[in-house]
Amino acid sequence: MLTTKLLMLTPKERKKIILALEEDMGFCDITTEYLELEENVRAQIVAKSSGIIAGVEEACFAFEYLGAKPKALKNDGGVIRKGDIVIEVEGNAKAILAAERTALNFLMRMSGIATAAKEALKEARKANPNIIVVETRKGTPCFINFEKKAVRIAVGNTHRFGLDDCVLIKDNHIAILGLEEAIRRAKRNASFTKKIEVEVNSVKQAINAAKLGVDIIMLDNMKPSEIREVIRNLKKLGLKKRIILEASGGITIENIRKYSKTGVDVVSLGYITHSAKSLDFSLKILTT
């Protein structure tokens, strides 16, 4: 029987965790089978580095799915220090050891991303206390929803989850149709519940997109000076207040403050999901 906490996982998330377990186990864990491990044991997952924890629900589900009984001592989004015990688990040794690596992988990857996202937000808000920091869709196939979940856990927001989440007119769409026609078709066909975002790479494109009535403008690979020029022009035209401006492309922890100072509403960074360093955890069987 799953706890109320674990029922927060969606059916799709549970299915993917099960697939991860199956991928790791194959037909069975032959080591524990050959060792005939039938003993009931207790174990702890210990943090080997500091940061923001994420993936606790996923790790606990992995253990519980195989019949062990996990107890989370840290909640997703909390600060952890090296040496902290984050999960205790008891049950059959086979179940605990079979779930070990899958549980740790979720914790390590998601916590690393959450930590990177939190660091980026902290740095950005030194320049702009209202800035929103999010990731992009640059992530790991079949795992990107967990990566995005880790970002949301850390900073409370995220970019679109997939192609069905928002109308995003990018450079290749514009190459095919042109900016004006692409926006015209999107506005003609989009539901009123879907925002329309357009990616631009020049001041002129940004102003044209604003005049054509889009909801969000992504200022892609533009310099801070160019972004400030866009904002000045939109204010003159009386369009700034109704449009969300997102800075994206080439933004890192080293320059995020410069982009935040420009006055954009959102800064998106691909490195949060594609290059964040995983946090380290280990599982230890208690012998006493």
Task: Give a verbal description of the structure.
- The chain has helices spanning 11-25, 30-34, 56-65, 93-124, 144-155, 171-177, 179-189, 203-211, 224-236, 256-260, 271-274; strands spanning 40-47, 51-52, 69-72, 79-80, 85-92, 132-134, 167-169, 196-200, 216-220, 244-248, 266-268, 281-285.
- The two termini are 28 Å apart.
- The radius of gyration is 23 Å and the shape is elongated.
- The protein is an alpha/beta fold.
- The protein contains eleven helices and twelve strands.
- Helices cover 43% and strands 18% of the residues.
- The strands form three sheets. A six-stranded parallel β-sheet has the order 6-11-10-9-8-7.
- Helix 1 crosses helix 4 and helix 8 (203-211) packs parallel to helix 9.
- The model has no long low-confidence stretch (mean pLDDT 94).
- It has two domains: 6-115 and 277-285, Aldehyde Oxidoreductase, domain 3 (Alpha-Beta Complex), CATH 3.90.1170.20; 121-274, Aldolase class I (TIM Barrel, Alpha-Beta Barrel).
Low-confidence stretches: none
Estimate what percentage of residues fall within beta strands: 15-25%
Structural class: alpha/beta
Largest sheet: 6 strands, parallel
Order of helices and strands: HHEEHEEEHEHEHHEHEHEHEHE
Number of separate domains:
2
Name the CATH architecture of the largest domain.
Answer: Alpha-Beta Barrel
Oligomer: single chain
Mean pLDDT: 94
The largest sheet has its strands arranged as 6-11-10-9-8-7
- Given this structure, which CATH class of the largest domain is correct? Alpha Beta
| Residue share in helix | 40-55%
Q: Count helical runs.
A: 11
Q: What is the CATH topology descriptor of the largest domain?
A: TIM Barrel
Number of strand segments: 12
Cα shape: elongated
N-to-C terminal Cα separation, in Å?
A: 28 Å
CATH homologous superfamily grouping of the largest domain: Aldolase class I
- Please give the radius of gyration in angstroms: 23 Å
